[in-house]
Design a protein that fits this description.
Elements (H helix, E strand, L loop, with lengths): L3 E7 L4 H11 L1 H5 L4 H21 L11 E7 L9 H11 L12 E8 L4 E8 L1
Parallel strand pairs: 2-3
Antiparallel strand pairs: 1-4, 2-4
Length: about 130
């Protein structure tokens, strides 16, 4: 039976803050010409957020030995394809801890879905 890792990334608690947060990390914000300095700050912030949640939720600290499929569940007002930046930041944060690398040898695919929980749920499933 394949192994899997599941953890959650909380959204900001306040509805207005959540809306501002999702707009900041939506792909459309990057298409609109966000400067590289802000993109770099976003990356650093998101990596620290994911790493902190993995520590808090005691996520494995060694990569899977086999390839994985990574699934992201979201619950906000963005279109599903507008989460590509979030997906990239999550996958980059998993490297060296949950997955060996994010190349096609180790990540066979990604999936994105909506759900009704108030968090971003990350599922890494060994194939």
């Amino acid at each position: 039976m394949p192994k899997k890792t599941v953890f959650d990334i909380p959204y900001p608690a306040d509805k207005k803050a959540k809306s501002k947060w999702t707009a900041r990390f939506g792909t459309n914000a990057y298409y609109s010409g966000k400067v590289w300095q802000q993109r770099n700050k976003d990356k650093d912030y998101f990596h620290a957020l994911v790493w902190g949640e993995m520590e808090r939720q005691k996520v494995r600290k060694f990569p899977y030995e086999n390839p994985v499929i990574i699934t992201l569940f979201v619950n906000d007002r963005l279109d599903v394809d507008n989460h590509s930046i979030v997906l990239k930041y999550v996958i980059d944060s998993l490297k060296g801890r949950v997955i060996r690398d994010d190349n096609r040898t180790w990540v066979h695919g990604v999936e994105m879905y909506f759900h009704d929980e108030d968090c971003i749920r990350v599922v890494v499933r060994e194939v």
